[in-house]
Amino acid sequence: VAWRRGAPALAVSRFREGLDRGRRSGLNSHRAILLDGLGLALHDLGDADGARQAFTEALALNDAHGNELQAVQNLINLSLDARLSQPERAQALARRALDLCLEIGFAHYQPHARVALSLALSASGQPDAALQTVEAALDAARQSGDAYAECWAGVALAEALRVAGRTLEAAQATRGALVQ
User: Fold this and answer.
1) Distance CA 67, CA 7 (A)
2) Cβ neighbours of residue 31 under 8 Å, at least 6 residues apart?
3) Could you report the per-residue pLDDT of 158-178, keeping only the tens digit for each?
4) DSSP track, 99-154
5) Averaged pLDDT score across all residues of the chain
6) Cα dihedral sign for 41, 44, 49, 55?
7) CA distance 175 to 162
8) What is the structure's pLDDT at 4?
9) What is the pTM of this model?
């Protein structure tokens, strides 16, 4: 709750406390969820390395335990982290997240995985593929009624349009995303 209310430092403290308690008690069943939350809070504090490490450990745990639903979130977070420094890796992570969503019927995160893929495609200079992918994300978000995903897809649309050199349309897409 602290992280979502704008107190990422407090959230980091609470996540680390939870991880420590789990380690001491031998009850690590929620370790991957705590690590994912820790990664998000660390990212908000600007600790990209710490966030990446938390997301990577969470993904390894989820892969080992067959928790595909949680793994989708980890993959999306890792893709977003990698998109500017390693866009090809970001694409592979986002594609894996999308494939998992489609394979297990996890419609809720399908738009999020498509947005991550679109942002990775934009970062690697592929605006046409990014636009095609973000249109599918927008369709999926609208079908599900997920206003957050639709807003996020609007941001990805603006980025794809910017990379394509369509700056006026990118500005309009940005305004449209903010209205969401």
Assistant:
1) 28
2) 19, 22, 58, 61
3) 999 999 999 999 999 999 888
4) HHHHHHT-GGGHHHHHHHHHHHHHHTT-HHHHHHHHHHHHHHHHHHT-HHHHHHHH
5) 92
6) positive
7) 13
8) 60
9) 0.90
